[in-house]
Amino acid sequence: MIKKILNCKIGNAFAKTSVMKFSVWLCFLLTAFIKFSIGQTPVGSSTAIYDGDTIAYYTLNAVDIYGFIPANASDDVRKYMKLRRDVLKAYPYAKIASAELRFIEESVSKMTSEKEKKKFIKEQEKIMKEQFEKDLKNLTYTQGKILIKLIDRETGHTSYNLVKDLRGSLQAFFWQGIAKIFSANLKSRC
User: Fold this and answer.
1) Considering just the CA atoms, what is the radius of gyration of the chain in Å?
2) What does residue 127 show for φ and ψ, rounded to 5 degrees?
3) DSSP H/E element including 29
4) Phi and psi dihedrals of 152, rounded to 5?
5) Are the beta carbons of 94 and 154 closer than 8 angstroms?
6) Once rounded to an integer, what is the mean pLDDT over residues 175-189?
7) Distances (CA, A) of 2 to 9, 15, 110, 112, 158
8) pLDDT value at residue 30
């Protein structure tokens, strides 16, 4: 009976070491498979000694994970992506308009005569027109409407009030009429 118990214990010990070896090889193969199936080499690899064991570890590249989009939300997602594209196209021009307005206000505040102020504003308008007219003509109607709202947000003044202050009431009325033809409103606030 003792022989039977010893044989059983020896057999179990052998079986346990075989399972452990198989597990180690399986982990190694899975790691190698994952490493090569991704098609990218790890960013960094190294080894560490933990409780007397040498352990290899890898720092992997970051992976972006996007959530599941339900089928009924596809229209909303499409509209959002279009709005995002339009805002990204119009936003730099709103920032430029804000910076240019600050520059004009600072410069005009130092001038004494109205004639000098009007001349400076017309010169700045001419420079900006040469620089941005082609790009602004390529904006869509929606991007133009968004630009009007972004200018309001960046400057704190509606586009109508900016034109009125810088060019006069007649010019503001004219450009408001043109905007209305294209179903936009220079007086709109964000």
Assistant:
1) 35
2) -65, -45
3) helix 2-38
4) -60, -45
5) yes
6) 84
7) 10, 20, 108, 115, 98
8) 67
